[in-house]
């Protein structure tokens, strides 16, 4: 997501589509807003703290490059597939991100896997991982084959030749 924000901000070409799995869209949110039905979720407060204190030390957590949910023109995003796990503490971020982008005109497909936690494409059950990977492939194949992904691969605001 940060790469998309940078491309849009800098006026450089963007892809026609993006697939976002179990990401964090807003690092400015308090950890208390990230909850899970699991007693010990994969992404707990300690990991979020570690990310802020290492990768994001000194960063402005409201900068859209750090927190893409803060991007002021989410309708500019290309076609998005947003996949979340129903047990993932980051699902709230990504749900809100998907809803906001859709409300601003971006083409968004959101799917939540009810019994899945973070990194569900890499863990059992295999059926969840397989379904997610097939959804990613279908989304990207459709967008790139038809050019109908919503993103243009051109600079924002420019017309096709």
UniProtKB/TrEMBL annotation:
This is Alpha/beta hydrolase fold-3 domain-containing protein. It comes from the Bacteria. GO terms for molecular function: hydrolase activity. Keywords: Hydrolase. Residues 3-121 form the Alpha/beta hydrolase fold-3 domain. Coiled coil: none annotated. It comes from Amycolatopsis bartoniae.
